[in-house]
UniProtKB/TrEMBL annotation:
Matches recorded under InterPro entries: ATP_synth_F1_dsu/esu, ATP_synth_F1_dsu/esu_N, ATPsynth_dsu/esu_N
Subcellular location, record wording: Cell membrane
Entry membrane topology: Peripheral membrane protein
The family this protein is said to belong to: Belongs to the ATPase epsilon chain family.
Protein's UniProt keywords contain Ion transport: yes
Gene3D superfamilies noted in UniProt: F0F1 ATP synthase delta/epsilon subunit, N-terminal (2.60.15.10)
Keyword Ion transport in record: yes
UniProt keywords, alphabetically: ATP synthesis, CF(1), Ion transport, Membrane, Transport
Protein known as: F0F1 ATP synthase subunit epsilon
Main location: membrane
Stretches assigned to the ATP synthase F1 complex delta/epsilon subunit N-terminal domain: 3-79
Organism of provenance: Microbacterium horticulturae
């Protein structure tokens, strides 16, 4: 079962979709999430969020000033500033 991922900034939805892996930087260090992960609520640190879609496509975004929440295979990343990296 894939993860449902929502990455939003204060102004817009940056990316939303299904993924097999999400890696983000928190104030505690880098953390990765796959389906079945235990619930997590963490403070997002400035850095890259790396998402691997279920089709294998890799998406990267710069994000800072926010939090990341994981529960029931849903990953929500809320950032003050976030933008996809080309």
């Amino acid at each position: 079962m894939p993860l449902q991922v929502n990455l939003v900034s204060a102004e817009e939805e940056v990316w939303s979709g299904e993924a097999s892996l999400v890696i983000a930087k928190t104030v505690e260090g880098e953390i990765g999430f796959m389906a079945g992960h235990e619930p997590v609520l963490a403070i997002l640190a400035e850095g890259r969020v790396r998402i691997t879609g279920t089709d294998g496509v890799k998406i990267e975004a710069e994000a800072k000033d926010g939090f990341i929440s994981v529960e029931s295979d849903t990953v929500t990343i809320v950032a003050g500033l976030a933008a996809l990296v080309a």
